[in-house]
Amino acid sequence: MAEDLEKLKKTAKEYSNNLANLGKELSEIQFNYKVIENATEQYWQKRVNEFKKYSEKGTEYYTQAHALMNLVNKEQSGLFLLNISKFRQIGLKLITNMEEVKQNPSSIKSNDKQQSKWSKELREKLIETSNACLHHEMDMNKFFREFYEKHLKNMLEEDETKK
């Protein structure tokens, strides 16, 4: 039994270190969800590429967090896995919206008095999806932090104090 616990702690420590490294990589990407009124196709192509890179690394990060959670609580990790799936869904929707804006970059300008109903709806849809993605990610981070504090922190710190 003690051998199983030591194996669990060792695996948890390894996963935790991987998670920390992924977190550093994710923070270096520095994607900002704020919608900026830029009317160039190049800008929007860059945004799409940046978000794809961010989303890919974010999914990798959250998948590692799921693996760490799964070591100690299968039910909670299952819920977190559903959140990862939702993050990907919202992210794909955001990419689609940014691609639409890229095709019609002038549609993003809110101060255009001649703006069509379609342009206004596209802009609102982009802002709404961007906010949904941001808030979902914030909720996922909160969920994981609380889980970590409750289920993992003591186990990982206890292992560190023994060394």
Characteristic key phrases:
163 residues; mainly alpha; 0% strand
Give a short summary of the structure.
It contains 4 helices and no strands.
Count of all domains: 1
List segments where confidence is low: pLDDT < 50 over at least 5 consecutive residues: none
* Element-by-element helix/strand order: HHHH
- Please tell me the overall pLDDT: 90
Which secondary-structure class do the elements indicate?
mainly alpha
Shape: elongated
Radius of gyration: 20 Å
Give the DSSP E fraction (strand runs of 2 or more residues).
Answer: under 5%
Helical content band: over 70%
In the CATH hierarchy, the architecture is Up-down Bundle
CATH fold naming: Four Helix Bundle (Hemerythrin (Met), subunit A)
Largest sheet: none
Strand count: 0
Description:
The structure is a single chain. This protein has 163 residues and is an all-alpha fold. It has helices at 2-29, 41-70, 74-103, 117-161. The protein has a single domain (10-26, 39-161), classed as Up-down Bundle (Four Helix Bundle (Hemerythrin (Met), subunit A)). It contains four helices and no strands. Helix 1 (2-29) runs antiparallel to helix 2 (41-70), helix 2 runs antiparallel to helix 3 (74-103) and helix 3 runs antiparallel to helix 4. The mean pLDDT is 90.
List the helices and strands and how they pair.
Elements: H1 2-29, H2 41-70, H3 74-103, H4 117-161
Helix pairs in contact: 1-2, 2-3, 3-4
